[in-house]
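User: tokens in, sequence out, please.
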């Protein structure tokens, strides 16, 4: 899966264990699905996952990893990947924007992205197969990019991996889950919370000023293929300025999260949060208390690499200092007391 700030790679096993500990669970809402890493793991464990994210690249990833089923898409996806890997590069908007005006990728790989993306358009594929193809292309490009893992900027010097040739691989699409076919939605979080219903809801909201759309704007443009107007050294989409999440606003965050917690249609909530977020542990427990008993597990982790090296401006001049190298991740559980106690015991 793509490199992703906020990825739950290190705690996904605990999230699955938490869901496993909740009796009679068959379905899970993943309200802020991101790379679909959590949804993918839950599907592998047999749950019917209802994934949602308002960013289009994330909806595509969830369509591939949650909604699409291996028995339906593996054969045609394998054939497509072989065909696309034989295509020669043809420079276009992507190459001009992300290889010439900016330096996220070397031009040889940008030209391949252009050619393959146009080929996907020309195929007129059904939605799930198209999502598998787009995911394969995103992941291939991610393996040859020149960033620290976010697209707010690119490295001053080429990353060694950027010299490699772009090559697609078939994503790890899973068979249909025992509990039923998954879904992928691209709704606003409040709309999704009101419309989707499951036994458990997993929430991993943005919790500080960093916008996932801004951090991964290249993938948004690659998936939408709308050739938007861009701005700045990083060639960000201009619509980033208006497509802002309320969860990236400190003054609005608490009210927004409280509303979401009240709205979501599931008897048990599991919530990921961090001590780098807008709210402290006590405030989170207070908000989640509206849904019943609250338990929490605390984990200590090394901060993302950008926190350690991202203190230089584009000219290479040091403009800040590293404040800390580790942070605490919280996994909250809210619901009936007996369920909360059971989950916390399973994670202890």
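Assistant: Sequence out:
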């Amino acid at each position: 899966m793509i490199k992703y700030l906020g990825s739950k790679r290190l705690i996904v096993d605990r999230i699955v264990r938490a869901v496993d500990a909740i009796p009679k669970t068959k379905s899970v809402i993943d309200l802020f699905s991101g790379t679909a890493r959590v949804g993918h793991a839950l599907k592998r464990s047999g749950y019917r996952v209802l994934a949602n994210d308002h960013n289009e690249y994330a909806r595509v990833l969830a369509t591939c990893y949650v909604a699409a089923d291996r028995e339906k898409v593996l054969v045609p996806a394998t054939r497509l990947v072989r065909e696309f890997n034989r295509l020669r590069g043809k420079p276009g908007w992507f190459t001009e924007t992300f290889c010439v005006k900016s330096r996220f990728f070397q031009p040889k790989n940008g030209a391949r992205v252009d050619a393959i993306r146009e080929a996907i358009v020309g195929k007129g594929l059904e939605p799930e197969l198209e999502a598998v193809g787009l995911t394969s292309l995103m992941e291939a490009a991610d393996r040859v990019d020149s960033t620290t893992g976010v697209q707010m900027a690119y490295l001053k010097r080429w990353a060694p991996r950027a010299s490699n040739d772009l090559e697609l691989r078939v994503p790890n699409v899973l068979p249909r889950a025992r509990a039923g076919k998954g879904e992928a939605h691209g709704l606003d979080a409040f709309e999704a919370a009101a419309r989707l219903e499951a036994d458990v809801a997993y929430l991993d909201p943005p919790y500080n000023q960093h916008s996932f759309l801004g951090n991964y704007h290249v993938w948004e443009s690659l998936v939408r293929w709308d050739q938007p107007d861009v701005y700045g050294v990083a060639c960000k989409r201009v619509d980033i300025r208006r497509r802002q999440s309320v969860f990236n606003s400190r003054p609005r965050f608490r009210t927004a999260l409280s509303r979401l917690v009240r709205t979501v249609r599931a008897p048990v909530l599991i919530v990921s949060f961090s001590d780098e977020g807008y709210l402290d542990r006590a405030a989170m427990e207070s908000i989640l208390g509206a849904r019943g008993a609250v338990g929490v597990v605390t984990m200590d982790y090394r901060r993302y690499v950008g926190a350690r090296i991202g203190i230089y401006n584009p000219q290479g001049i040091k403009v800040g200092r590293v404040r800390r190298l580790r942070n605490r991740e919280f996994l909250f559980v809210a619901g009936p007391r007996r369920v909360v106690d059971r989950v916390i015991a399973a994670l202890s």
